[in-house]
Amino acid sequence: MTVVKLSIDYDAFEEGKRIETEIEQLSNSPEAAAVSSLTIGDWGQAYENSPEDAIQALVKHSASFPALRRLFIGEMGYEECEISWITQTDLSPLLPAYPELQSLTVQGGTNLRLSQLQHDKLEELIIITGGLGKNVLADIAAANLPNLQKLELYLGVDNYGFDGGLEDLYPLIEPGKFPKLTYLGLKNSEIQDEIAAALADAPILDQLETLDLSLGTLSDTGAEALLASPRIKGLKLLNLSRHYMSDGLIERWKKSGLPVDVSDQQKTDDDDDWRYPSITE
Amino acid sequence: MPPAEPLIVICNPGDRRSEGIQLARSRLGMPPALLIPYAGLLQGQPLADLLEQAMQQHLDELPGQRQAMQQQLPQLAQVQADGLREQAGTMQQRNGQPGLTELAAQGRDSNWRSGPAAPAPDTIPPLLRLESPGGSFEIERALIALGAPDAPDADDSLHPYGSQPDLRPLSFKAAGVLKDMPGVLHHPSQWFRGYCRLLARIQREAGQLLPAARWTNDPGEIAAMTDKRRTQQILAAAGVPVPRPLRGSSGQAPVDYGSLRELMLSQRMHRIFIKLASGSAASGVIAYQLNPATGAEVAVTTIGVENYITRPPVYYNSGKLRRYTDPALLAGIINWLYRHGAYAEQWIPKPGGSGQSFDIRQLVVAGRACHAVARVSTTPITNLHLRSRRMTPAEAGLTEEMQAQVRQTAEQSLAAFPRSSVAGIDVLVGSTGRTYTADVNPFGDLLYDVEYHGCSIYEWEMKQLPWRNLAL
């Protein structure tokens, strides 16, 4: 079990260091055969460059990483690159190259595609973006992932590339689409109320253990729909954290006795703004 | 303990800084510092008068310390200016205490000025200490007035860029009637000019009044530390690692929004911090990014703007970080910053997991790193005013080795200011483990509830700052 992260910071990239070289060096190292989890962080000024070369190198050297089960493409904080500015590419070529892969996490939605999303063993797909394009949602809807247990999508806002709507999400929650799915996250959305209302009575709830609608703009409107639904009673966790629900609704959730996370309430008013003098330290 | 030298602090009496110093001195059994109010100086009172008042006040308020003060008073005796002796004589008549005239005579007899040898115990010259002038709008207004083109005392010798005129300056009269609008950045460049003029005057008067006194931080160096353009030049010249400044191939710095963007693209430096040259406390700081592929821009800043139809916008310090992507708005803010003097440098990604980042405020006293705080934030701007969380460097995840490197970088930074002995240095730790100095804060020692060897900051400073330990 070896966990590795490769990353090229700004200065290193300017000095000519390249992520594909790092991948190649890792593949030639004695530890390569034991790498079970590989994270590709910043591949060098990711607001300008896609991870195309990293993907090609990972495909080319896949035989050197027989133990690889978890792959994360684009793990970087805002200190390295705004999530909404991370340039991605079509990551599909990775999947046939790693038939034993169990978990794929992607961060960044610009130019992201998963055009041939087929994999027999993939259990987990997580896509973290500031805005997910509806073409990617269509890629996922067309996917063949018979073993998928967890699907977690950070949908984001239209300013950063979310150009879809409910109609693009419905195909993902059709029963039978992902027969083994137990964790569904449709989160970090500016249409979180609509999503909550659409999911409240969706048959897919019957197979889920976790429904994750956190990090978005969920208000009392969406929460009422969920509360009224008998289908949520079978969930082991309903994650609604970081929300805009009222105190009254939070109280009702608490009284419901349901396993729900209503932490991190956001305030809608602007009272939190304050001003400070300059010369104080 | 050898007799402590008298301490004269120029400050806003009653603020947390002056109170903290007095508390520390009392705990250490030292006589209280003499506090000289900025307000009095800015009302035009001579330093000599204010010093006398401060001495008198101590004798009136602390009769129990009369004996201690009497022991202290001879040590203040370095008066040379003839005009001052008369005033001092009046004081002697008033209270029957030894006056400055006699003290001056004793001072002249001392061997202090003849060489670096230790002075006799009864003639230890005083320490002079400047504190932050912040925290009072009246002081801010008076400094902006003092920076006016028609101000009576226009000694710009300590201003690092004093010959460059301030844009659209306020007259002495107009500045004097500015209204208090909390957080508003009234005229930062004129404020800085006024502050430099005040520093020059204090230096001049103190030099006449107390020629043997020593400064904990030299007024000229305080001016240089307060101007980030000058600070970074001094640090770079001393070989201290600093974030790379944004400059063209022939060394030219940006002058406005347009040239800033051009230089960012031509120098391939797409993520920068822009700082108001004379700002502190994250005042006028922008974390700015330009996407070379799309031309999009994102700025995270404390600067808030109020726009009006009939008059120029008002810029203020918002305690809530703001995010701007609108080019027109950003051009306005950045152009305003550059009109008041600005400095742009490479954005060093700060370390930290789970969406948080931090830097280290490292205090250095008398050449040695002491108290340190990690300022942890979920935003790119970590100042404590923005409700950042405080941790110890170890809690923030820094290894012993990295902490040692931070301390060394901080010590090296203060050493670049050879006539200063106290500063709070902001040290960045890059993702590759390199350390960089981002700021040198001459008044950056106001850290609460941090101890070093069992001492609060002021206790530590009072123990470390006898004249013989000063960076001279």
UniProtKB/TrEMBL annotation, chain A:
Segments of this protein annotated with the region Disordered: 261-281
InterPro entries recorded: LRR_dom_sf, STM4015-like
Protein name per Swiss-Prot or TrEMBL: Cytoplasmic protein
Biological classification of the source: Bacteria, Bacillati, Bacillota, Bacilli, Bacillales
TrEMBL record, chain B:
InterPro entries reported for this sequence: ATP-grasp, STM4014-like
Coiled coil: none
Presence of keyword Nucleotide-binding: yes
Domain ATP-grasp: 232-466
Biological-process GO terms, alphabetical: SOS response
Organism from which the protein derives: Paenibacillus borealis
Protein name: ATP-grasp domain-containing protein
GO cellular component: cytoplasm
Domain of life: Bacteria
Keywords from the named record: ATP-binding, Nucleotide-binding
GO MF assignments: ATP binding; metal ion binding; ribosomal S6-glutamic acid ligase activity
